[in-house]
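Working notes for the structural subgroup meeting. M.R. asked for a predicted model of this chain before we commit to crystallization trials. I am recording the input and output together here so anyone reviewing the notebook later can reproduce the run.

Input as submitted:
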Amino acid sequence: MSAEASASLDLRESFCQRIVRSAGEIALAGFKGRDTVFRLKGPQDFLTETDGAVESHLRAAVARAFPTDAFLGEEGGGDLGNNVWVVDPIDGTANFARGIPHYCISIAFVSGQEIELGAIYNPSLDELYFARRGRGATLNGKPIAVATTSSFDAACVEFGWSPREPNSAYIAGFAALLELGANVRRAASGALGLAFVADGRSDAYAELHMNSWDCLAGLLLVREAGGRVGRFLRDGALVQGGPVIAAAPGIANAMSGAVGLPLEN
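Returned structure, recorded in token form:
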């Protein structure tokens, strides 16, 4: 990377960390105010007023700071470009709307085909995960690493469900993980599920279909924390979404085989 490109990314890194925290203030106010009025965009796909408010805040901030950058948000859509910010204003909206503090804001900055920056912030717990490509991953500024787990008898993994895929495929993957001996859970925030792999709270995360705004930041976190991930962007899923897998190295191959999703690295 040229000195000019590195300096440009330095600016975006600082900006990303500022705006995810300012967006977190909006999200936390909505959570404390019990923003429980929601509508369904589709089966089990929730939307609250806070989702829109957070995305509008982030979209406006990016437009002011980097007017030539593109913006792709879950609620308002957007355009793609060589430099694009990919945003989920509230991941885990079903939790958020029910007063469960397991939700987050997810922001990724993509340049070309590379995820350069990723931020995942849970304002209720004040936990900010951040990664920059090639520079490791952190939680509240402290370096994190994936777990050293090597046996499924000791593994805790998360397998996300999506209405976009047949229930039979999900049930088959779930059963295969149980047969391996894993403790399988689902906490209803894919972004945090990936962040938990990055810091070793979980040993793996997989979902048969995720949108880019749900997973890009988390995939960078896991990779920078020493984990293995699937081929999400390589398979052209930026717009249409696709399967996601991320795992600690010690169980990655078996996890891949159980859920039928290939690994990239």
